[in-house]
Amino acid sequence: MARISNGLIGFLNIIILLFSFVVIGVGAYFSLQSSADCERFLQWPVIIIGIFLLVVSLFGILGSCCRISFFLWIYLFAMFLLILAMLFSTVFVFIVTNKGVGDVISGRGYKEYRLGDYSSWLQKEVGNYKTWSKIESCLRTAKVCHGFTAKELASANEFYKKNLSPTQSGCCKPPTY
């Protein structure tokens, strides 16, 4: 049974090792080709995550295939930290975004979102001009508000009937009030 579990850990970590090379490559691509603020913002976190995955997978491979228990303990601790980080980031996202926001408006294909509906931390960050200019640059680069036809933009009724995503509703149109 120990051979099967060690072999499985080794196999999974070889896949993670290959994936870490892809992640590091994406981070390097961001650093070489980035023109937008959001891509420059992502380059170092992506590279760091890729290096972390590389090191952890190496510990897993060495620990399982070479039967070095010290490396398996390091691997176990790193996996525990990874699970904790995922848990905290999930809780953070739920607290900051508060899924229940948005007022339904009759005759509209979207909900009306206001900055006051979100957490005070997010309000402060988005309300800051420097931060908002970076967010706006990312939205423009990602073409979030791109794709509206001339007919939809010419007639307010046609625009309001359009089924907008929460990002488009909050960023691409003037407030309904």
UniProtKB/TrEMBL annotation:
Q: Which GO terms describe its cellular component?
A: membrane
Question: What is the originating organism of this protein?
Answer: Rhynchospora pubera
Please classify the protein's predominant subcellular localization into one broad category: membrane
Question: Where in or outside the cell?
Answer: Membrane
Instruction: List membrane-spanning regions.
Output: 7-30, 42-63, 70-96
Which keywords fit this entry according to its UniProt record?
Membrane, Transmembrane, Transmembrane helix
Superkingdom: Eukaryota
The UniProt entry lists membrane topology as: Multi-pass membrane protein
Keyword S-adenosyl-L-methionine (UniProt): no
User: What does the record list as GO biological process?
Assistant: auxin-activated signaling pathway
Any one Pfam family match given in the protein's UniProt record, by short name: Tetraspanin
Q: Which family does it belong to?
A: Belongs to the tetraspanin (TM4SF) family.
UniProt keyword NADP present: no
Q: What is the lineage of its organism?
A: Eukaryota, Viridiplantae, Streptophyta, Embryophyta, Tracheophyta
Under which name does UniProt file this protein? Tetraspanin family protein
